[in-house]
Amino acid sequence: MEDRIIDPNIAQEDSDEVSLRPSRLSQFIGQERVKKNLQTFLEAAKTRDPKKLGKGEGILDHILFYGPPGLGKTTLAVIVASELGVSLKRTTGKALERAGDVAAILTGLSEGDILFVDEIHRMNPQIEETFYSAMEDFRFDIVLGKGPSARTITLPLNRFTLIGATTRISLLSSPLRDRFGIIERLEYYNPPELAEVAKRASKALGVEIDRELAHLLAKRARGTPRIVLRLLRRARDFAVVSGTNVIGKEVLLETFKALEVNDYGLDKMDRRLLETIIERFSGGPVGLETMAAILGEDRDSVEDVIEPYLLQEGMIERTPRGRVVLEKGYVACGLKPRVKNDFLF
Ligand SMILES: Nc1ncnc2c1ncn2[C@@H]1O[C@H](COP(=O)(O)OP(=O)(O)O)[C@@H](O)[C@H]1O
Ligand SMILES: [Mg+2]
Q1: What is the pTM of this model?
Q2: 41 CA from centroid of ligand 2 (Å)
Q3: Residue 304, Cβ neighbours under 10 Å: how many?
Q4: If 221 and its partner were Cys, which of 203, 227, 230, 245 is the partner (CB 3.0–4.6 Å)?
Q5: Which ligand sits nearest to residue 12's alpha carbon?
Q6: In the prediction, which pLDDT does 49 show?
Q7: What is the pLDDT of residue 338?
């Protein structure tokens, strides 16, 4: 997605991120339901004695985290590993191209280790199939040769936990999905939670921001911790340049302006989407394909990155005939809602 300053997909901040990523479940803010479930599963896995149990028992079940970008899926995977004291190997669905790559990774895992596969929906079908027996029976079947002389050899694996993350759970095949014992959906955060994220991160970044301003920042972060952190870093830069380590209101407003984030936390791309529907389709309905083509984005980004927040905030609505902008969407673009007409409502 072209220069979207708050594009939650960009992980470019990873270098100084280390200190900002919570490493314990107790430091992870919000997502109470998910945390409570994980706590229970972790306790159970820790107290079971693997030696006395059958295949797969005593090992944490495979976990799938799904939800929009920047809400903490990767962070939770890392936390699970550190809570269990096991090591975590990371890869992505797209990087796993050949069965041989998968075999190398899986046979390299020790008992209880975690394999984290980000963007797991991007695995190709052949690779995906190799995971079925790996996840279920901890064995890896590799076919050697072709045609009638082909034979299968089976590599035994140590028992491991697969943690998958995806923004698109609908693209996962059901055989794969069914092999995850734990499936957790991450939700957008509310402003008080995001303000807390900002407060804690500001300490790590060596800057000060008061409660009220942390809240102002939180309200413009699209419900997303990654965006809070990005805005905070930029605000820190502005503060430092003006010779202080205190983030004041002026600095904050300057940051929003520089990053083109409006009062409702909408960025350029959000506004373009809303304005396109409003101006070119008198508020809708307009089909996803048409809209994606006009915005010059692929439909996946529109559906999984831009729209979920606008939907949850009640700015747009999905109808059988396409997307419609609701009153709140007009207001968020600084426009007057059009008069409701019977045709639509
Ligand atoms: N609940 C949370 N509390 C504190 N920081 C968080 C939380 N969730 C996410 N973050 C931070 O936000 C950033 C993005 O999180 P990440 O786990 O990479 O998201 P995802 O994998 O879902 O795209 C990271 O820097 C992470 O430390
Ligand atoms: Mg991630």
Answers
A1: 0.89
A2: 21
A3: 19
A4: 227
A5: 1
A6: 61
A7: 73
In this predicted structure, what is the pLDDT of residue 53?
53
Residue 272: per-residue pLDDT: 95
Distance (angstroms) between ligand 1 centre and the Cα of 86 equals 20
pLDDT in the model for residue 142 = 86
Instruction: Determine if ligand 1 sits within 6 Å of the CB of residue 164.
Output: no
Question: Which residues of the chain are under the pLDDT cut of 50?
Answer: 1-3, 5-15, 17-18, 345
Give the model confidence (pLDDT) of 151-182 as tens digits: 988 999 999 999 999 999 988 999 999 999 99
From the CA of 172, how far away is ligand 1's center (Å)? 23
CB of residue 187 inside a 6 A radius of ligand 1:
no
Structural domains in the chain, sorted by start = 31-185 (3.40.50.300), 191-258 (1.10.8.60), 268-332 (1.10.10.10)
**Residue-level pLDDT at 4:** 54
